[in-house]
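Need a sequence for this fold. Nothing fancy.
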């Protein structure tokens, strides 16, 4: 049986998971791939902390070059994270004609187009199943299983930290700060949680999915991103009363000559299965023309779910190697020459429905004033509700709009904020209720 040598760069949580799974599932992997997947060397600056892996013949070294420059190593797994050293090591590994497997979504979202070119020039593979949705086989699904489909849209919950926080606020009425603290204590959220709660991690993942779905260059910079910091228990409660759940969604939709790509808190109805995805779980709903709706649900993070996805890439590459094939499936699902830049719709051009909550003065004419400004800006209101108790002379007024243009909404809200009819900034949450089976 052919032996394929593997090196790991970075022996933290994911690196340990990959080493563990390679060791624990040695026989299963051999019988499924027809190759011996030999973990030859692991490199990490910390070689002394005890990890719960029986290394056997695997060497643990502090110098990454001993992995990157080892002529016997076929596949290098990067589990360092970040965009500096990881990028440098991946580039060196690709140039040394090693296949690379990574879980690093920030790196693929930010530098993927260049890395793909380097991999192509060196005739090696670059694989990143673990970069989006943890264990869910979304990359393989888009590149292979759905190859005969036009992907019309994708809506996804891709950040376990945000989903945990929103679920916590919804279930027990916690405020955002308390829910965040709880997520940090449970190890979901980082001490510096911005990457997750401000939506950037979700945007990284959406940039990757859009590229695979539509044959477009990876484009992170034009994705609209809004996180969950301003979501209050009041809005979650009111949303529930109207039959909606608030989720941080990644939304990607194809139009004739552009795509929509946006990440923001979104109100979705109970008919949308994503509304039942709770706690730290992730899910991706794909609407494609031949399949209709397809959904993947699973753990978006964690040692073993992530390691499972990394192993699926290792096994794919190992199978290619033993069949004498290189790069059987294009890295971004389309041969590189077929990948085009596709513009992302500027957010001001978006048409959708909206939930507004105003803290309105409780005196005659206020509602007429607010609705008047909305009307002057073409925004048609479907329903108006005065909800909750009067506080400091103000009452919460909620309005649900018909479809309106984002630019009109932002202009109207600015005008409303300038009047003395409302206090503070109005709350705006976009509604996505187009889910069809
Ligand atoms: N920080 C991410 C999350 C996990 O909270 O889902 C890794 O992508």
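Here you go.
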């Amino acid at each position: 049986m052919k032996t394929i040598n593997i090196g790991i760069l970075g022996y933290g949580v994911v690196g340990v998971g990959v080493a563990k799974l390679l060791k624990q599932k040695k026989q299963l992997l051999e019988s499924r791939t027809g190759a011996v997947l030999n973990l030859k060397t692991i490199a990490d600056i910390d070689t002394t902390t005890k990890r719960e892996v029986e290394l056997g013949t695997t060497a643990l070294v502090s110098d990454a070059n001993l992995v990157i420059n080892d002529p016997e190593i076929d596949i290098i797994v990067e589990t360092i994270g970040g965009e500096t050293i990881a990028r440098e090591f991946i580039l060196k590994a690709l140039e040394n004609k090693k296949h690379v497997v990574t879980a690093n979504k920030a790196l693929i979202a930010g530098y993927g187009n260049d890395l793909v070119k380097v991999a192509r020039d060196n005739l090696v593979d670059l694989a990143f199943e673990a970069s989006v949705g943890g264990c869910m086989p979304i990359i393989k699904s888009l590149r292979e299983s759905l190859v005969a489909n036009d992907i019309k849209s994708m809506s996804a919950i891709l950040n376990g930290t945000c989903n945990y926080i929103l679920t916590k606020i919804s279930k027990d009425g916690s405020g955002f700060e308390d829910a965040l603290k709880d997520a940090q204590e449970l190890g979901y959220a980082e001490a510096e949680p911005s990457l997750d709660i401000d939506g950037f991690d979700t945007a990284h993942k959406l940039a990757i999915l859009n590229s695979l779905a539509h044959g477009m260059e990876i484009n992170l910079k034009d994705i609209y991103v809004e996180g969950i910091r301003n979501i209050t228990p009041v809005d979650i409660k009111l949303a529930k009363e109207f039959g909606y759940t608030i989720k941080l969604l990644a939304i990607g939709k194809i139009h004739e000559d552009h795509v929509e790509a946006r990440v923001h808190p979104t109100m979705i109805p109970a008919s949308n299965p994503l509304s039942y995805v709770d706690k730290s779980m992730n899910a991706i709903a794909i609407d494609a023309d031949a399949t209709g709706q397809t959904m993947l649900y699973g753990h978006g993070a964690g040692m073993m779910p992530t390691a499972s996805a990394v192993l699926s890439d290792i096994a794919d590459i190992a199978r290619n190697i033993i069949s004498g094939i290189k790069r059987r499936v294009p890295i971004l699902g389309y041969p590189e020459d077929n990948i085009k830049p596709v513009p992302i719709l500027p957010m001001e051009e978006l048409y959708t429905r909206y939930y507004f909550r105003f803290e309105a003065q409780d005196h005659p004419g206020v509602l007429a004033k607010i609705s008047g400004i909305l009307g002057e800006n073409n925004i048609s209101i479907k329903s108006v509700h005065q909800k909750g108790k009067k506080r400091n002379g103000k009452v919460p007024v909620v309005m649900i709009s018909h479809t309106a243009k984002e630019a009109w909404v932002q202009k109207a809200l600015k005008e409303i904020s300038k009047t003395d009819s409302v206090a503070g900034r109005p709350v705006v949450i976009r509604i996505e209720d187009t889910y069809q089976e």
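For context: The longest helix spans residues 303-322.
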